[in-house]
């Protein structure tokens, strides 16, 4: 009477000299909401970080720059449909025909429906000053969603159906950036610290 799902996750983390950091993961998701050929989706991701401020050539900035780093990342994620049985042909009672009970199809079988997949790239970094008292970070991202899943897609009345429960309808892009400036005990008087 419902759907079932399964997920498998693997992850690794590597750090060299505590300033070259690499993290990766891979997730495999299975769902009975899809037809037999599309039940599994694989969604990897990877992220790196280079702490530039820990390099020997940055020794001149000690006392001024306490952290300088860059951190690119990329990953995939997936989304499944809301309906449990869209890949089956379903029927519903419909009056009678020649004095016998009749049934008619109640849906369009969607056995080719795919996982909606989102790919996101992120390029970020941070720079902290004066023992982390004045901090600045930024992020730029590009996100592309393909096999975009949409619910209740209208159909021509000549098809005999009003709508599709779900469908993969196209591709959508989103781009954006984020900038943050914050402080930690920027102003300190005795035991009193003021953040902004």
Gap between N and C termini, in Å? 54 Å
Helix and strand composition category: mainly beta
- What is the beta-strand fraction? over 45%
Spans of 5+ residues with little confidence (pLDDT < 50)? none
- The SSE string, one letter per element, is EEEEEEEEEEEEE
Q: What is the CA-atom radius of gyration, in angstroms?
A: 27 Å
Oligomer: single chain
Separate helix tally: 0
Q: What sort of overall outline do the alpha carbons produce when their principal axes are compared?
A: elongated
Strand ordering within the main sheet: 1-2-3-4-7-8-11
Structure description:
The chain is mainly beta. It is 0% helix and 62% strand. The chain has no helices and 13 strands.
Task: Write a concise synopsis of the structure shown.
The protein has 196 residues and is mainly beta. It has no helices and 13 strands.
């Amino acid at each position: 009477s419902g759907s079932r799902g399964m997920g498998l996750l693997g992850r690794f983390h590597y750090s060299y000299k505590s300033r070259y950091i690499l993290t990766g993961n891979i997730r495999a998701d299975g769902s009975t909401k899809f037809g037999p050929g599309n039940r599994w989706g694989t969604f990897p991701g990877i992220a790196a970080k280079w702490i530039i401020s820990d390099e020997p050539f940055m020794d001149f900035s000690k006392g001024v720059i306490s952290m300088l780093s860059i951190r690119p990342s990329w990953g995939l994620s997936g989304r499944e449909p809301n309906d449990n049985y869209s890949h089956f042909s379903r029927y519903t009672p419909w009056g009678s025909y020649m004095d016998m009970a009749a049934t008619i199809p109640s849906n369009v079988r969607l056995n080719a429906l795919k996982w909606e997949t989102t790919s996101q790239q992120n390029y970020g970094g941070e720079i902290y000053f004066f023992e982390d008292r004045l901090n600045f970070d930024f992020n730029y991202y590009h996100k592309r969603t393909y096999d975009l899943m949409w619910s209740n897609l209208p159909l021509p009345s000549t098809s005999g159906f009003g709508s599709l429960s779900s469908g993969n309808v196209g591709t959508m892009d989103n781009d954006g950036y984020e900038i943050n400036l914050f402080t930690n005990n920027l102003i300190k008087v005795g035991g009193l610290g003021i953040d902004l």
